[in-house]
């Protein structure tokens, strides 16, 4: 008896992403959906975060940022909007970061999906 698994559609990836994002389970999203060659793109004007390539480097980037957060005041993520091989969500967050202070962030997070995995994330803020 063989078990076949099908590649998740973009709708399935976006729905699962949304479910995990509502629970603030960002590392679980990375574990489940990020490809080994993921590209994480920050805006050219970003002062606190840099772009990263590869699953391990993107994970380190996220872990290093989370370690600096001293207080999470609030966060909310919108439902995904899907177009072609992409989906986008809106993200609002208010946090206190060591060495920076209290920050309010309103951003759009864009994800590109190929073969059921996220191959690129890009942030607009």
UniProtKB/TrEMBL annotation:
Pfam families: SnoaL_5
Domain of life: Bacteria
Protein name: Nuclear transport factor 2 family protein
